[in-house]
Amino acid sequence: MPEPTHALAEQFDDLEQQRQASTIGMWVFLATEVIFFGALITGYTEYRASYYQAWAAASKHLSVVFGAIMTILLLSSSFTMAMAVHFARLGGRKRLALCLLLTILLGAVFVGMKFMEWHDHYQRHEVPGMGFEFPGPNAREAQLFFSFYFAMTGFHALHMIVGIGILAVLTGLALLGRLAPPRHVPVDIAGLYWHFVDIVWIFLFPLLYLVDLHHK
Amino acid sequence: MSSKTVEPVSETPVNYLNASFGLRSWLLTIDHKRIALLYLVTITLFFFVGGVFALLIRLELLTPRGDLFTAETYNKLFTMHGLIMIFFFLIPAVPAVLGNFLVPLMIGARDLAFPRINLLSYYIYAVGGTFTMYSVVAGGVDTGWTFYTPYSSTYSNTHVTAMVIGIFITGFSSILTGLNFIVTIHKMRAPGLTWFRLPLFLWSIYATSIIMILGTPSVAMALALVAMERLLHIGIFDPRLGGDPLLFQHLFWFYSHPAVYIMILPGMGIVSEIVPCFSRKRIFGYSFVAFSSLAIAVLGFLVWGHHMFVAGQSIYAGIIFSALSFLVAIPSAVKVFNWTATLYKGSVSFATPMLYALGFIGLFTIGGLTGLVLATLGLDIHVHDTYFVIAHFHYIMVGGMVMAYLGGIHFWWPKITGRLYPDSWGRLAAAIIFIGFNLTFFPQFIVGYLGMPRRYHVYPPEFQVLNVFSTAGASILGVGYLLPLLYLFWSLKYGAKSPANPWDATGLEWMAPSPPPTQNFPVTPLVAWEAYEYEKREVPVA
After folding, report:
1. Which of A193, B86, B447, B484 makes a 20 to 30 Å CA pair with A6?
2. Residue B259: its chain A contacts at CB < 8 A?
3. pLDDT of residue B540 exceeding 60
4. Which positions in chain B touch A9 (Cβ < 8 Å)?
């Protein structure tokens, strides 16, 4: 009861209960996300097993260097996000905002690079269903590879954009001083989400860019 | 609590219904009880829309010839009947209406953990429903509710994309509802209310929520891929382009079989509340009933391949899926035996909710046992895609789930509205529904076993007698469903005022006034007793 009431929603008894509820809520949500991407990865696995040669050839049309740089960017953004969570708990308003901004920046560069890659594929006629062309006898199966490539990276990028939106709102709130403890929990929750989206990419990078890399 | 003095009108205490007025106070409410009522109205609408399609199907099947509709129209009718009933009635019905209303009340909380997300889930449901109704009005869908590829993704010329988008969106409503319940049951229980003191309804809702959050994303992705395939022809499910149509069936049934348990588990929870109350006895084997809910949720994820016995799946996969499907019968039977054992030597009375609960037990048992027939590989090849399947799942869905839903509505109606309905009318409607239901669907077991396939608008003349029974039963069933609509509406204005605990039931929800105030409990209750202590309640509480 001596706690600052404006931080506490009325359905909760105390801030600890509220914090735990929000945290579990995000974990449950992430469990649904695992299945969401899991369904795509199931389809990916089936076709990769069926059409390995074609998928290996198609995968070589992606730039490993480009993908690696994107991976590094995203891992760095997870570091700045972790620092944001740290500073939010300590109550450092400016450092919190700075870390959030850095995270947004790294995430935005990632999404920008993804768009550049998609644009390259478009120019090379590698977009399924839109005049897809692929040299060699496996064009049909390669188109399936690119279908999954676009679906997986597309849904991932969508999650990145949502994440950037959330972080932008949090940055605004941080600058207004409205995320000072005990109201820092949203940063924790957004952090969970951001790390999850990061982990999805850690799966997508080898699945899509590194098929049969050792035979290069 | 009457602090205001000069207010002649307010002889009824402030409750969640009269706390504020106006459309805005309802459409933007974050009170779980009002959101439950928003769902109740919307879901009832969908139920009757789906019911009209069912009636048209039965009318067409009155005669062996296709005299009312063309084959194409008939395809659309059964598709839309299935889609609306499953995604917009059966799946949300108990969780979103009774679950929303009761979960916080049963655990002594003021609201769900995330009231705004709760409201959001209602609007997501409404938007999804709008897409679906658009698809229906624009001309409908003819793929069957299962959207099997490549027909749905490549060949069907109907409004599949809009329908698929509608169901994709509605899925998120389901996910958010499940998420809210899981967090609420974990974190918002009143002091002293341990897991093993929870009403069994909550164990059911918890198990249901797990399926909602872990199953729904799979069907969402499957349907998203169908939409992409339709828009871009990228070949994911098209064998001509290297795709595998069976992949869709796997992703679809990975959700849609567990979804059967989304529909039935909450019904089992309702029966577990009603049976002890009207037997005046503690439930027999509390922890077995509780864990059987979780067992059903877990096993439910391991049996989806029994929908694909004749779809070209490997025979070894078929054998394993068949064996696992048999296992589901164990926790289901545990429940039936425990309800029966609860009745044994109880002082049983037959108010309306109890009639529905008893109806549920009988009809669910028939539906469950015929499920074993279908889970048997060899037998399934004989009855696959016949009316035997239709009869089986309607015994579960309508005979089980709808009966339980109506039982729950009648059980908690006094709590929800603060009014009593005429019990004799209630019992009459329950009897009509029971008779109508059996007359509709029992003949379908026979006609299906004799070989009448599902999804055709014409059939050989020798099947006509049984189909006439079925159609006659359907019209009786229709009357049975209209009756509660009438007398429950009537009770809103003319029904006697209900006391807080009209059934003398245990459970925290009965300690709040009827209807409860917006905050549910002025003081958070302290729970120092087990669930269903009916034997200890010689003296009824005021």
Report:
1. A193
2. none
3. no
4. 115
Span A74-97, average pLDDT: 95
Cross-chain residue pair A129–B233, CB shorter than 8 Å: yes
pLDDT band of residue B5 (cuts 50, 70, 90) is very low
Interface test with B, best of A26, A33, A35 (most B CBs within 10 A): A35
First to last CA, chain A: 65
- Is B23-510 assigned to CATH 1.10.3720.10? no
Three-state secondary-structure class, residue B164: helix
Q: Do B241 and A140 touch (CB under 8 A)?
A: yes
The rounded distance, in Å, linking the Cα atoms of B367 and B381 is: 19
Q: Domains of chain A by range and CATH? A: 14-215 (1.20.120.80)
For residue B167 the two structure tokens come to 């169901």
B113 touches chain A (CB under 8 A): yes
Residues B306-312: contacts with CB under 8 Å, at least 24 apart: B306/B257, B306/B374, B306/B375, B306/B380, B307/B249, B307/B253, B307/B256, B307/B257, B308/B246, B308/B249, B308/B250, B308/B253, B309/B377, B309/B380, B309/B381, B309/B384, B310/B380, B310/B381, B310/B384, B310/B385, B311/B246, B311/B249, B312/B246
Closest by Cβ to A128, choosing from B188, B221, B234: B234
Give the pLDDT of residue A216.
Answer: 56
Q: What are the residue ranges spanned by the domains of chain B?
A: 23-510
